[in-house]
Predict the 3D structure of the following.
Amino acid sequence: MKTVGIIGGSGFIGSHTTKKFLQEGFKVKVSATDISKTEKYKHLKELQHAENLEILPLKVENKQQLQEFVQDCEIVIHGGTPFQLDVQDPKTELFDPTIKGTENFLEVIKDTPSVKKVVFIASVAAYNTNFPLPPDGKTPDDTIGESDEPFMSEESHPYAQAKFIANQTVEKFIQDHPDLHFEITSVSPVAVMGKSLSNREDSTSSGLQFLFKNNIAPNPFVQMLFDTDAEFAIVDVKDVANAIYSASQKNGLHGKNYLLSSESWKVSDVSAMLNGKQPKHSAKIVYKNDSAKQELGIQFNPALTPLSEFND
């Protein structure tokens, strides 16, 4: 039985990823920043094949804990960076755990002989920190793909900036270490929607769906989405988990970063679909998904699928 370590494996994307690897017959290690807070990961112990699940303490800023966590893992999934929109101190809440955590992780993995494959759960922000608005120089009618020049603005949300810099850190590490004993592949999902596997109340993805459904804007960023009726690119959380698993199983993907996206809808249409109503506009494809379809074998669900499941 192969072992996979999933950093952030009890979060919104992470829980679906943990479920996928358990289904596929893996022994799964999942990290917990505070192992005493069992309510954050108890839902994982109800999954099928949970007897092959182990929960271990880990803060990504702690190198010793990282070393202990990845020991004996053949595959490591790194999705342990914070996703939050309400931020008081960007440095301590976002930049340190995201960027320093990535640097620590890469250093530790480099010295862990058992590891053969690393998958980073990056973000659409690796390509465009203005998301869901277009990058400077593009309109909402333009498309964005992996071959486009990545765009970062210092005026973007700190979360997006942190994810962009973390992705640049990974790319530089790959360039500086041409003879690694493992492959690194990244996936960059757009807005991830669908049903949470837990009852956790700290999920930004679930919270955003709740806000859209109920037309609530608790901060300027969400208010901007309503005011501009932004084109909002969506991907099903189950498709993200399948893409992560696929990337972990295929060779020859070293250094690649796949956009994971289905359809883009105006925020008003997302709100309508979350309330069981018909959208007034049509879907667009803003973020290209050809590479993920062809090389990871993902057939993306239409946006209505995860939005409907959120209400189930």
